[in-house]
Amino acid sequence: MQSGIVAVVATGGTIAGTAARPDDHVAYAAAQLDAEALVAAVPPLAGQPIETETLARLDSCDMDHATWLRLRARLAALLVRPDVAGVVITHGTDTLEETAYFLHRTLAAPKPVVLTAAMRPATALGADGPQNLLDAVRLAACEGARGVLVAFGGQIFIGAELRKVHGWRLQPFSAGDAGVLGVMADGALARFRDWPAAPLHAAAAALPPADRWPAVEIVTSHAGARGVLVDALVAAGVRGLVVAGTGNGSVHHAIGEAARRAERAGVPVRRASRCQLGGVVGAPPGALVSAGTLTAVQARIELVLDLIAADRARA
Ligand code: ASP
């Protein structure tokens, strides 16, 4: 089936989760199984040229910058090997879109880097992980495939466009207005759009250790909002802020005024939307800097990278 080796790198998540009862989709422990066990649970992968490694065992709600750096370094080492066709990363669904966006902006991926996950633990009746993993491995072995991608629920997403829009539905992801890259149809990819290509962020050339990454936080605008969170974050030494605004990036005046105080104190602020789809279009006079099409969590990563690049330019 495959022309080269597919490396499967496990990081945890529900796909590696186990529960005491097969009908339990909630009170399970995430990140219990290693990469070898995940592959062993997919009979069509038996005998295929697959390498496995377990890089982390995290519930992805606990994903952190140090793990991202370790993952990125491992992926770079795997992708450079001529015998490796592509890489699959098993991950939790909760922060999948953040890891995908970080890798999209910082990892040269001339071969496919396919993230996958599951909404039901491995012990569930109708566990979705094994089929998702099979699709991910098949995609990673696809001739000509490239970029950071996500295989989930029979659909293939461009990693940078992914967003989790539902808390517990079996397909919790959306590709946004652009739609999915393709679908896995009878084990083969049917592709509707071009592979993702984007220049890497300037910071990708030399990312510092995670303990030197600038702190960037997200504040949500809402009815009855006050500026205290913004002021407290600035007082605590935050380096940048993203405001997840209402609708098309509108911001409660109290947060807007605090954001202006933050900017005057040298803390850049980006204006995103708390809506998962659509991003922010246009900029009314006097508005904070727009994060454009990025979601708030993507805008946070982008601002971290901007600040790293600015720090390096100053050094
Ligand atoms: N909390 C889990 C995680 O993100 C949820 C999942 O994988 O679906 O690791």
Beta percentage is 15-25%
What profile does the largest beta sheet have? 8 strands, mixed
CATH architecture of the largest domain: 3-Layer(aba) Sandwich
Ligands bound to this protein structure: aspartic acid
Secondary-structure element order, N to C: EHEHEHEHEEEEEEEHEHEH
User: What spatial form do the alpha-carbon principal axes imply?
Assistant: globular
Strand order of the largest sheet: 2-1-3-4-5-6-9-10
CATH class of the largest domain: Alpha Beta
**How many domain units?**
2
Secondary structure topology:
Blueprint: E1 5-12, H1 35-40, E2 50-58, H2 65-79, E3 84-90, H3 96-106, E4 112-116, H4 129-140, E5 147-152, E6 155-158, E7 163-164, E8 173-174, E9 182-185, E10 188-191, E11 216-220, H5 228-235, E12 240-245, H6 253-264, E13 269-273, H7 296-314
Parallel strand pairs: 1-2, 1-3, 3-4, 4-5, 11-12, 12-13
Antiparallel strand pairs: 5-6, 6-9, 7-8, 9-10
Helix pairs in contact: 3-7, 5-6
Bound molecules: aspartic acid (ASP).
Aspartic acid is lined by residues 12-14, 30, 59-61, 92-94, 117, 119.
